[in-house]
Specification:
By secondary structure, this protein is of the alpha+beta class. The chain is 29% helix and 23% strand. Strands 1, 2, 10, 11, 12, 13, 19 and 20 form an eight-stranded mixed sheet that branches. It holds the Pfam family Amino_oxidase.
């Protein structure tokens, strides 16, 4: 008679990275937690398709080694991150130029050697021959012949100013960035005192890739945080595909915590109702789904606009000679926002003897997207793509929540006592934002329930036959 009338302390609805990271913090504090996921696998949009030995990300957002939550989230100690080559590789005026190389990642001499090697690689037949370009290294100036056009980073003085700006940004506390006046990112760039050529040739394509926002309508505060992470870390991807991160979180939770194939139809402060198992009672509910699904369970919750993303995966047995670089188009001459021979970054993503080239198109994809992407990739890499095999074209209409100003980077996670919400739509629309949102939600739940005391031993999910 004294048994509590609930089956778990907290029910988390959704097994994306936000919900799973919250579940880790809750279980670590002795709070019995049940994670319910409607799909038959964890991860949500961080999904990886497996085809003939290839691992193909559906969205493939770029991560940074500077993301604090990758280090702070329990359960991610075993995550292996595969970094891209330092900085990024820009394609401008028919040539490759390396930019954004940070101190301690090979130095000016190594970066200059890399650029010289790339400069001798085959160029697009239609591309004019230009002199070698200098390299942007924060805090340092590298002497190299300048082209008359100054493409794509401007003169050596311009590059030194860019390097100094990135160095300052890397050392600026996040709180100071969040206190800056807020504008759309594209408008804010023009007020930073950098030459238009540097902004258009480097910062715009870089931010578009980091934010999945080709028009740079994102809040300048979010853009500053993204540039700060770029300036203080290395761009990277999880080894084995994007799904490796949520799968690691799920695997390191206590056995029986995560239940897939369970669709939640309604929530309250003391229970959730599922299509398969009826009512499950609890002391608190955390809705950790995507924004649209959260609004269906929590009427009145705002649904943001979204940035669509299309990822096109090709394979070839003759990979282009760009190494493990992230390649951006400084000329914006086609649909591809960024591309990489991703198997050079993470060899586990392709079988031996094959290369995997993954390319991202932002916004609404053009008609005949694969043909348009192939033509653009031929110019970017300077090789024929006619014999490349298309493995998959993944289009996600609601891939990344938009963060247009005014954007609250810390939207409330506690709706009322007993009912909470988290996800990248409550923070920043990055993996870092999703993890941090889960961190904030779990802290609010622990404060309300009373952290540090064991509350209940979770009952198993009822084995009621699935409804027809």
């Amino acid at each position: 008679m004294l048994e509590p009338a609930y089956q778990a302390d907290v029910v988390v609805v959704g097994a994306g990275v936000a919900g799973l990271s919250a579940a880790h913090r809750l279980t670590s504090a002795g709070v019995t937690t049940m994670v319910l996921e409607a799909a038959h696998g964890v991860g949500g949009r961080m999904a990886t398709e497996k085809i003939d030995g290839f691992r193909l990300d559906r969205i493939g957002q770029l991560l940074s080694t500077a993301y604090p939550e990758l280090r702070l989230t329990p359960g991610l100690g075993g995550l292996v991150l595969r970094p891209f080559a330092p900085g990024v590789l820009l394609h401008g005026d028919g040539r490759h130029h390396r930019a954004g190389v940070q101190p301690g990642t090979g130095g000016a001499r190594g970066a200059l050697h890399a650029v010289r090697a790339l400069a001798s690689a085959p160029r697009s037949p239609s591309a004019p021959r230009l002199p070698r370009r200098p390299v942007a290294v924060p805090g340092r100036q590298v002497s190299a012949p300048r082209s008359r056009s100054g493409a794509p980073l401007g003169t050596a003085v311009d590059q030194a100013r860019l390097g100094a700006a990135l160095t300052r940004l890397a050392g600026t506390p996040a709180e100071r960035l969040l206190a800056r006046p807020e504008l759309p990112a594209g408008e804010a760039l023009a007020a930073r005192g950098l030459p238009a050529r540097t902004i258009d040739g480097f910062l715009r394509p870089l931010l578009a890739a980091l934010l999945c926002d080709p028009d740079l309508t994102t809040s300048s505060r979010c853009a500053d945080l993204a540039l700060r992470a770029f300036a203080s870390g290395r761009l990277c991807v999880p080894e084995g595909g994007a799904e490796a991160l949520p799968e690691l979180l799920a695997r390191t939770l206590p056995a029986g915590t995560v239940h897939t194939g369970v669709r939640v139809t309604s929530v309250s402060t003391t229970s959730v109702t599922t299509a398969e198992h009826g009512e499950i009672r609890c002391r608190a509910v955390l809705v950790a789904t995507d924004a649209r699904a959260a609004a269906e369970l929590l009427p009145g919750l705002r649904v943001p606009e979204f940035h669509p993303v299309t990822v096109v995966h090709h394979t070839t047995d003759e990979p282009p000679g760009t190494g493990a670089s992230l390649l951006l188009d400084a000329d914006l001459g086609g649909p591809v926002a960024h591309t990489a021979v991703i198997s050079r970054v993470d060899p586990s993503r392709a079988p031996a003897g094959r290369a995997l080239v993954s390319s991202t198109v932002l916004g609404r994809p053009p008609g005949g997207v694969d043909t348009a992407v192939r033509m653009h990739l031929a110019r970017l890499y300077g090789v024929s793509t006619a014999r490349w095999e298309t493995l998959a074209v993944h289009h996600t209409a609601e891939a990344v929540p938009a963060m247009r100003p005014p954007h609250d980077l810390r939207r409330p996670v506690r709706l009322i006592a007993g009912l909470y919400v988290c996800g990248d739509h409550r923070d920043t629309s990055t993996v870092q934002g999703a993890l941090h949102s889960g961190h904030r939600a779990s802290a609010a739940i622990l404060a309300d329930l009373g952290a540090g005391r064991s509350l209940h031993v979770a009952d198993p999910v009822p084995t009621v036959p699935r409804a027809a």
